[in-house]
Design a protein that fits this description.
Protein name: ATP-binding protein
Family: Belongs to the ABC transporter superfamily.
CATH superfamily of the largest domain: ABC transporter type 1, transmembrane domain
Pfam families: ABC_membrane_2, ABC_tran
GO molecular function: ATP binding
Number of domains: 2
Distance between the termini: 77 Å
CATH class of the largest domain: Mainly Alpha
Subcellular location: Cell membrane
Structural class: alpha/beta
Bound molecules: adenosine-5'-triphosphate
Radius of gyration: 35 Å
Largest sheet: 11 strands, mixed
Shape: elongated
Helix content: 55-70%
Number of helices: 21
CATH architecture of the largest domain: Up-down Bundle
CATH topology of the largest domain: ABC transporter transmembrane region fold
């Protein structure tokens, strides 16, 4: 019970924001229409039930006129039913897509906002495969919530409408048990109630493990898909290393989990279906068995009997809502749990500073230097990695950061970029200044080359002529003529070419601070020198901070800073100038 109320509270928390959002009037209007039609459908059911009594009574009485009239009444009722059912489905689907659209935008916003997606990955917490949660889980949540919610409402209204009918019918011929001198009034209602409660309890008992099995199934399917995507993304490496058979083993291993869990679902579903199918079949004859004594004692007509059968089955169907939707409920609960986990993981990554001390990256005024104060960068597991205190990067100097592999140079850059929360201390960044990080492997979105180069700027914000000029300047004149060509650039260009495009991106954005993390390491030394000279010439007022292992890079920097070991960590030393700063040189 506690579990059910917790699930319902979670559903409320996930579902409500849409109905309070900017799209609330459309959402509420569509929901109201869908509910109104559902109520109208129940009303038609009640009318059809009463019609059955008249129709079968007319049959029993060989009354042709009534028979023909009732046929026409049925045609009217059936036509109204069809029209309402069609529009209910249509409006329901319309509501689904609007709701899903809003929820997807909302989750995308939260996930992508302020590097939350990266922090979630760093924290490695419970929300596996966010892609699946934003696609399949959101879709299933919207579909199932509407279907279950409307189904439940329909069951409640049906129950009340038909209980009244059933009560009246059973009181017309109360059940008399031989030997007892009192009649059980409303016995059909009690019969239906007993039947449904017993069915619900047994269904829950048999089907309970399905909730967890469904949760796991979705996780294993998503894991398998994610691993396939990784193979596709790294197919060149795999082909070069001839890793296909290792991949096949690994993928089949993952798929093994999907299969094993599926067998669990199959066996559970088999038992559940055996029970629910028997239950539903028995429900067909159960009411006739109950009213048979009254009928054969000629206390009721065939019409009453048929109406009773149909009313009983409506009541029993309404009461057995949980029995018939159990599988759907199990899937729905799994999806609710997954979306809940996703929301919690997003908010814990977004509010990481609220739970633990983090590195404070703050805008500074009155200084145009980046200053590191009492900084201690840590690993996600809390182990200290790099320390820096009283260290400043002046504007516009050129700093080369060196140090042993794994000493934490890239992580220090991540901390300065504000995406690495683990650690303590302060990083002051001059307010309103722009920072750009160029990694060794720049990211290019799939699409037109022009858009990929200027990323993350949007199309149209930088003139094509400027992009072409930058591409020529970095030694890629051929690509300058292909700005509109679409490709997966990270796959089709060599790493050296990608690094040239990275530098073109930096030239086009002209940030105040440019951090190059081995961003030219795949080029030969003359090409690297050419790109550094180009940056010196085109970005005279940009502070450049590079990580690099080549001594030839010294020539393009004014200061060399080393990460030196100090016990278990590395400390950022205040390096000596290697040559004059650009402003002094001019
Ligand atoms: N997300 C992460 N989770 C756990 N450990 C990490 C993570 N990112 C980096 N590390 C660890 O932090 C250490 C420093 O990594 P970093 O990439 O900053 O080193 P680096 O000095 O740039 O190395 P290199 O010169 O080889 O590029 C490494 O031991 C690495 O394994």
């Amino acid at each position: 019970m506690k579990n059910i109320s917790a699930t319902l509270a979670t559903v409320w928390r996930i579902a409500m924001p849409y109905f309070r959002s900017e799209d609330k009037w459309a959402g509420r209007g569509l929901l109201a229409a869908v509910i109104a039609i559902e109520l109208a459908l129940v009303a038609i059911d009640v009318l059809v039930n009463q019609w059955q009594n008249r129709f079968y009574s007319a049959l029993q009485a060989y009354d042709l006129d009534t028979f023909v009239r009732e046929i026409w009444i049925f045609v009217g009722l059936a036509s109204a039913f069809v029209a309402l059912a069609v529009y209910q489905l249509y409006l329901n689907q319309w509501l689904q897509i609007r709701w899903r659209q809003w929820l997807t935008r909302h989750y995308l916003g939260e996930w992508l906002d302020d590097a939350t997606h990266y922090r979630m990955q760093l924290k490695g917490d419970a929300a596996d495969n966010p892609d699946q949660r934003i696609t399949d889980d959101v879709k299933t949540f919207v579909e199932q919530t509407l279907s279950i919610g409307i189904g439940l409402l329909s069951s409640i209204v049906t129950l009340f409408s038909f209980v009244i009918i059933l009560w009246g019918l059973s009181n017309a011929a109360p059940l008399r048990i031989p030997g007892l001198d009192f009649a059980i009034s409303g016995y059909l209602v009690w019969g239906a109630l007993f039947y449904a409660v017993l069915g619900t309890a047994l269904t829950h008992w048999i089907g309970m493990p399905l909730v967890n099995l469904n949760f796991e199934q979705q996780r294993y399917e998503a894991d398998f898909r994610f691993n396939l995507v990784r193979v596709r993304e790294n197919s060149e490496q795999i082909a070069l290393l001839k890793g296909e058979s290792a991949e096949r083993e690994r993928l089949l291993d993952r798929f093994g989990y999907v299969i094993n869990n599926w067998y669990g679902i199959m066996s559970r579903t088999k038992r559940l279906t055996a029970f629910t199918a028997s239950y539903q079949q028995a429900a067909v004859i159960f009411p006739y068995v109950l009213v048979a004594p009254a009928y054969f004692a000629k206390k009721i007509q065939l019409g009453d009997m048929m109406q009773t059968g149909s009313a009983f089955s409506s009541v029993q169907r309404a009461l057995s809502f949980f029995v018939t939707t159990y599988r759907q409920l199990a899937e729905w609960r799994a999806v609710v749990a997954r979306l809940d986990g996703f929301e919690m993981s997003v908010s814990s990554a977004a509010n990481i500073a609220a739970h633990e001390p983090t590195i404070g990256v703050t805008p500074s005024t009155g200084s145009d230097a980046i200053a590191l104060e009492q900084l201690l960068v840590k690993l996600p597991n809390g182990k200290p990695l790099v320390a820096a205190n009283g260290f400043a990067i002046q504007h516009p100097e050129r700093v080369l950061v060196t140090g042993p592999s794994g000493s934490g140079k890239s992580t220090l850059f991540r901390a300065i970029a504000g995406i690495w929360p683990f650690g303590t201390g302060k990083i002051a960044i001059p307010g309103k200044s722009s920072l750009m990080m160029l990694p060794q492997r720049p990211y290019f979105p799939i699409g037109p080359l022009g858009d990929a180069v200027i990323y993350p700027a949007e199309r149209g914000t930088i003139a094509p002529d400027k992009i072409k000029e930058a591409l020529r300047a970095v030694g890629m004149p051929r690509l300058a003529e292909q700005l509109d060509d679409e490709a997966h650039w990270n796959r089709t260009l060599s790493l050296g070419e990608q690094q040239r495009l990275g530098v073109a991106r930096a030239l086009l954005h002209a940030p105040d601070y440019l951090f190059l993390d081995e961003a030219t390491a795949s080029l030969d030394e003359p090409s690297e020198a050419l790109l550094y000279r180009l940056m010196e010439e085109k970005l005279p007022s940009t502070t450049i901070v590079s990580i690099g292992h080549r001594s030839t890079l010294d020539a393009f920097h004014t200061r060399n800073v080393r990460l030196v070991p100090d016990g278990e960590i590395h400390v950022l030393g205040v390096g000596a100038p290697v040559r004059a700063a650009p402003s002094e040189a001019r």
